[in-house]
Amino acid sequence: MYRDISVNLVDVSKKIGTRYLFTGINLVINAGQCLAITGPNGSGKSTLLKIIAGLNQPTTGAIQIISNNKQLDAEERRGSLGLISPEIILYADLTGYENILFFTRLCGIECNQQMIEEYCRRVGLANDKEQLVRTYSTGMRQRLKFALMLAIQPGLWLLDEPSSNLDADGKKLIAQMIGRGLEQNATIIIATNEPWEAEHADYKIELV
Amino acid sequence: MPITRLSLFNRIWAIMMKDGICEFRTRYAVSALLMFALISLASISMAIGAARLPEDLTAALLWILLFFCAMAGLSRVFVQEQESGTILALQIYGSGQAVLFGKLLFNTFMLLTLTVLIIPLFIVFLNIEIYHWSIFLLVLILGDIGIAAASTVTAAMVAKTQGKHALFTVMTFPILLPQFLSSISTTAKILMNVKPDVSDIMFMAAYNVVLMIASSILFDYLWYD
Amino acid sequence: MRIVLSLWIMSVIYAVLYIVPPAEGLGNLVRIAFFHIPVAWVSVLAFLLSAGWSVQYLRTRDIQYDWKSSAAASLGLLFCLLATISGAIFAKLTWGAYWNWDPRQTSIFILLLIYGAYLVLRSSIQEEKDRAKVSAVYALLSFLTVPFLVFIIPRFYFSLHPEPVINSAGKLEMDMIMIYVLLAAVGACTALFWQCFSYMVQNKQKSF
Hints:
The complex is a heterotrimer. Chain A has helices at residues 45-53, 74-77, 96-106, 113-122, 138-152, 168-183, 195-198, and strands at residues 6-16, 19-29, 34-38, 60-67, 70-71, 81-84, 156-160, 187-191, 203-206.
């Protein structure tokens, strides 16, 4: 089971330049629920995800990440949320295995070799885990990010276009992963334009 | 859940090892720094020929050389993360203190390695005599830690700016100045066969400690948006 | 307010030119000091204020404090330049050289370097919040070096600079008229600084 995490958006808005991307978003998502954010390119899907991840500040409003009735501060959010996004880039000079080892340690989690091998196998990277990420295709890199998500086991998953660059097999894989994550109480927020990804969602936000 | 929480030290170590492995595989910074140091040293030596420099000038040259080598390579710890885009992942998963001290440790290690390689060349090229070896090494270590501490935190600042490299030197110099001046004077004393005072060493150590505490407090503001 | 200030400044200038007696040993050159000391004082004051507002900014994240910090630093640079130039001229006329790395000259030069680095840093970051955050951290970090410099610089360079107005014995070694005029000049200069400062901050607020 994943750690209980709920997300509370209070009157969140973001202005870039002179234009408001979105205004007045109010929402509560509880553990085990899924939110889908849809909207055309440039409508601010990725920005909203980054704001929830704490990588970007909203112009007004606040984001509360709550675990066991306690609001997490910036330090405590490390390791309790994970982001998969085209903007996340893993270390090209490390192997897939080393990347997972490094990031789990960074979150303070000790993973042994069998565990990391198991995560790589589940995303279909069993044979490539000892190769440098430099040599990976974009689809393989996307799979590695999911392996990392499995290893860190954050209670809150932020997924930005999770199936981009993946083949049919990979898409099926992440659909399974999202389904299993929700069963195990993870809170999932997906920014997507793929109708089938939004099917998991309990709530939907459409940005314009 | 398979989670055993690792201590801060383990996380710091993980970052240092990661940087170390990446550096070992590409050898970009080490070789650039070493060549930079070699060229600067050779140009000084060629320019002065067989003439012997006064001790205070030699000491100043040594620290200027180390400072500019540091400026050529130490910003890489954050600039590289920014340029390759990996800083985002580091920001999501890494806590500020672990990142700062991991990078600081790596920079210190790089600079010490460089110093170990430069010092013999320096002695050979400039024909100098070191009288108090143990104190000399202590001064070098303290000075290197100071340079690394000042440049790690400024590197984090310049990572998001334009014209990173020039700005890096401009910003680091005023912060480093107290340490820089006292390193030069202490080294000059050693070269003149005068034993430096304990207060000189204490000053350098105190500066390092204060700088690290301040970086540690201020870095969280930089790291968490 | 402006009329009062200009009258005040004019009367100080009049007093400096016509009322202050030529000093023993320095002659009429002493009149430069009535310009030099106030601008040097303001350049240090601006540095302190800028650091103070940086702390405020980091604590509250209110962008107004960033404007204040930046306005104080820009004016500080200007006053610091004036102090350096007037000091160099004074040095040439009394000690025979424009520049000789006197401790005071070294200190003001370092202040100039810090101001310069701070403003270059500001100009090279586009995003407003990033700029405010990074420059506040830099202002504080450079402020930290001040006590060390106060300790280290006098050990390096021999000083020809006159003792401060109130010297270590706590005795005033100046003519009473001179002291009054000097205080008036310092007051005028500080008021001028504050006037320019408020103007700059108000301009920012209007354009916001």
